[in-house]
Amino acid sequence: MTGTSFIPxxxxxxxxxxxxxxxxRFRDTNTTTAYTAKTPEELNFxxxxxxxxxxxxxxxxEVGGKYxxxxxxxxxxxxxxxxxxxxxxxxxxxxxxxxxxxxx
Length: 104
Known about the structure:
mainly alpha; two-stranded antiparallel sheet; 63% helix
């Protein structure tokens, strides 16, 4: 496995960290219901990639120009992602093991 680039891994880590920061901003300001929804200015963030991804999946919900984090949808989203990720990781591990045994 020579010549492997770590750039995609670094990009993925950055995306995950930025998403975590955004989610924590909603939690830290208790913006988790329609009643406590706030504007992007109040939350001090811009609508970028992390925001849009969460918004598209209805994890961040808009009500009257304000936004809040739907914790239940976040839990459901993470559960679905894990169910997809586990088989992918198993296949990757098997491919790596196969490559190791075939190159000996």
